[in-house]
Amino acid sequence: MKNYKTVTVNTGKSYPIFIGENLINSVGELISSLVDKCKIAVITDDTVDALFGDKVMLSLKTAGYVPVKFVFKHGEESKNLSTYANAINFLAENELTRTDAVLALGGGVVGDLAGFVSATYLRGIKYIQVPTTLLSATDSSVGGKTAVDIPSGKNLVGAFCQPSVVVCDSLVIKNLPKTVFNDGMGEVLKYALLDEKVFSLIENGDYDLTDLIYLCVDYKRKIVEIDEFEKCERRLLNLGHTPAHAIEKLSNYTVTHGNAVATGVKIMVEYSFNEKILSHGEYARICKVMEKFNITPCSFSAKELALNALNDKKRSGENIKIIVVNKVGDCGQKTVAVSSLEKVFYGCNR
Ligand code: GLY
Predict the structure, then answer these.
(1) Is 60 or 309 the better-scoring residue by pLDDT?
(2) Which residue has the higher pLDDT, 105 or 347?
(3) Which atom of ligand 1 is found nearest the CA of 142?
(4) Which atom of ligand 1 is nearest to the CA of 140?
(5) Which helix (H) or strand (E) segment is 199 a member of?
(6) Once rounded to an integer, what is the mean pLDDT over residues 339-344?
(7) How would residue 1 be classed by pLDDT, with cut points 50, 70 and 90?
């Protein structure tokens, strides 16, 4: 068996995350002690299918599973109720039963959609995450958030449903096109501000990608073990996400999630500094590291962002919880009135 690192997540259900190079051809073997032999519906998009579909199908067959494959058009615009219904129908037509499973092969869109399919089909069947982008490897494949978008906003229909196992091939991530890789760095920037170990790795440069993914995932593990259903601590993982979701929606999803998160994190750093939550020294240290991230300037005004954040899931009545940066490795929650969001986003064009 190949070399890999393992993070074990102990939520209501306990599951391993395997991270290492050249794991994509061994998915069947890696999951075989965790998922009994069954029919597996591989859910993927057309881009990922062309690259890895055959490899994963072969690996599953070789390990004794019966794989079937549902492919949809890549992109956030496919993460909707119509693709969801088509996928559910596909499972029913292929007679998947409660002892069968779904395998999400792809990035955040595939993982969220396939996860929601498995959370709801026959009231829930197990699923496996095989992330193929940096964004899904470091964040969305772990922790059990599943969802689809509706016209009013992103991820407004969904469920918490933990996977049974996550297999992350870091060589697949290393070989991604630059734009796709960089998109994932938005979530990495979030983890860098939440966890000093991730920050130092990037600050010092010259790191191993498996180590970077491992540290991000291990931080997320700690948070979701404390708060699986986002009642409190898990909200920290939403750092930068309120402005990010507004940017994505305003741009008609032409700004991708990771790029929007990077911009959103920067907005929250500017706000934290402006509010004197973040000291001059820490702000300077963070700005230096943020220069490594190619953060896309925001092309919307603070007012536009504030108006679009009104549908945010994190809103509660007239208030919303935002995440501020106290210092590197220490972020906190702050409740503000939704009417003051324009002020929070004031630094969006800096
Ligand atoms: N992506 C943030 C979370 O999983 O809570």
Answers:
(1) 60
(2) 105
(3) 4
(4) 1
(5) helix 196-204
(6) 94
(7) low
Q: With b meaning 16 or more CB within 10 Å and e meaning fewer, what string describes 117-131?
A: bbbbbeeebbbbbbb
Pair 108, 208 in one domain: no
Please give the biggest Cα pair distance in the chain. Answer: 60
pLDDT tens readout for residues 86-138: 999 999 999 999 999 999 999 999 999 999 999 999 999 999 999 999 999 99
- Which amino acid residue places its CA nearest to atom 5 of ligand 1? 237
From 220, 222, 313, mutation site for ligand 1 pocket: most ligand atoms within 8 A of C-beta = 220
Cα 350 to Cα 348: distance, rounded to the nearest angstrom? 6
Q: Which of 141, 174, 207 is at the close of a domain?
A: 174
Residue type, 144: G
Enclosing domain of residue 54: 4-174
**What residue ranges line ligand 1, CB within 6 angstroms?**
139, 143, 145, 234, 237
65 compared with 312, residue with greater pLDDT: 65
Domain count, the chain: 2
DSSP state of 107: S
> Which protein residue has the closest C-alpha to ligand 1 atom 2?
237
Q: Considering the entire predicted model, what is its pTM?
A: 0.95
Close Cβ partners of 233 (under 8 Å, ≥ 6 residues apart): 223, 226, 227
